[in-house]
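Lab notebook: predicted structure, single chain.

Context: the supervisor wants predicted structures on file for every construct in the current expression panel, including those that have not yet been purified. This is the next one on the list. No modifications to the sequence; it matches the entry in the shared construct table.
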Amino acid sequence: MSADRSTDGAAAASFKRDMIAALPNLRAFAVSLIGASDKADDLVQDTIMKAWAKQDSFTHGTNIKAWLFTILRNEFYSQMRKRGREVQDSEGTFTERLSVHPEQYGSLDMRDFRRALDTLPEDQREALILVGASGFSYEEASEICGCAVGTIKSRINRGRQKLQEVLYIEGPADYGPDAVSAPVTSQAFVA
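Prediction complete. Output recorded below exactly as produced.
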């Protein structure tokens, strides 16, 4: 019996270690879904609590990161269904009045990108975030979303095309510093 207890203890320690290692990725995914870091932190906490309570249902040796992302995603959709009676601010009208506009170009570009990302249908946005930002393979993303790999690839392709349209990106020249800041940045790195 003592061998069973030591095996259980090692599995529990491994589970805890793997779950803690996934926290930064879970938080990034939660922020990308919700947009507000405080609510994202709450979502990650709910996810970890559910995962901890259901760790007996996790099969050791499988992909714990995908398992946790699935729990987070399901919890997010459950919370969204519950919030049907709340005031919606999908265009950010109320939030705009409360926020301070950033002065850095990168922050402005990121804000534009975030707005463009928010215009995508949920399935395309989710696929782009899972593969592009969170580093999941197409296969892992399809497992998390519960659809075929080809569907994930299609969603990503359509999402990228839509982002290019919304952000008016026509080619590589549209990336990087603008005409005003390009001369400054190119001289900053000259030895």
